[in-house]
Amino acid sequence: MTRVAFVLAPGVHLLDLAGPAQVFFDDVLGYDLHWVAEHDEVNTAQGLPVRADTTWPTLTADDLVVVPGWRSPSLAATFALGQATLDRIRAHHDSGGMVVSVCAGADALGKAGLLDGRRATTHHDLQDELARRYPKATVVRDVLYVVDGRVATSAGIASGIDLALHLVATRHGPAVAARVARSMVVYARRNGDEHQASAMLRHRSHVDDTVHRVQDLIDTRFSDPLPLTTLAGAAGVSARTVTRLFGRATGLTPLRYQHLLRLERAEHLIRHGATVESAARAVGFEDARMLRRLRAR
């Protein structure tokens, strides 16, 4: 039975831990999950204490070691794993095993010397600091996860689920990973090179309620024709006001925002095997010419 050992640092984020754990917990996979820490009780970032073993299970090269992230406004100020733990992580890799990190967990892999000469990623708030701390690593920015040999790193929080599903697909096949994702009600299995923040989120940092209402409509119906009059009616303002407020809040026209959503969804479909023509139709373009122009930009 394959073992998955989760290494819990003080302040561990619940979703960094629970997301991948839920993937590997699937009954059909038959993984044996273990929780190890330097103390038998660990306080999470969200305040819920969790119990862990202070003794590591016996691991083989087929087993996984996963280091979930912890609350980390700064990697340098929050690291809390001792050298003995780092040595165990390194020893597992040296013996042929795979080591995985979520979010700030990449810092533990760096301290264990596992990022030197490798590509890695982490949460977008920590990428610059990770690059400074480990100059021999190549930090790949704004991606969900990176797998470099037997070292896998993810952006953290929800992307830990994406990485865990990828590892399941690699070990057991994409059909098994798809079934696990479906059982978890995961909307889409995302590839590692997809952006950490979607177009929907990148243009939602403003505080204009009218524009948010317009975006809500575009988000849910981006594949439909949406004339300005329809958007204006939903927001209760004139078409001219929609254009003015939308541009001021997002730097885009409503049509350009809709095209970004279409492009992002089409790219996702293409990465998963769709042709450009079928992806264009699926996102609302009459043919593939507009999609090709948008991709070329």
TrEMBL record:
SMART domains in UniProt: HTH_ARAC
InterPro entries: Class_I_gatase-like, DJ-1/PfpI, Homeodomain-like_sf, HTH_AraC, INH-QAR
Signal sequence, start to end: none
Keywords: Transcription, Transcription regulation
PROSITE patterns, per the entry: HTH_ARAC_FAMILY_2 (PS01124)
Pfam family, one: DJ-1_PfpI
Keyword Transcription regulation listed: yes
Cell inner membrane recorded as keyword: no
Domain of life: Bacteria
Domain HTH araC/xylS-type: 212-297
A single MF term (Gene Ontology): sequence-specific DNA binding
PANTHER family: ARAC-FAMILY TRANSCRIPTIONAL REGULATOR, HTH-TYPE TRANSCRIPTIONAL REGULATOR RV1931C
Protein name: AraC family transcriptional regulator with amidase-like domain
Organism expressing this protein natively: Actinophytocola oryzae
Upper taxonomic lineage: Bacteria, Bacillati, Actinomycetota, Actinomycetes, Pseudonocardiales
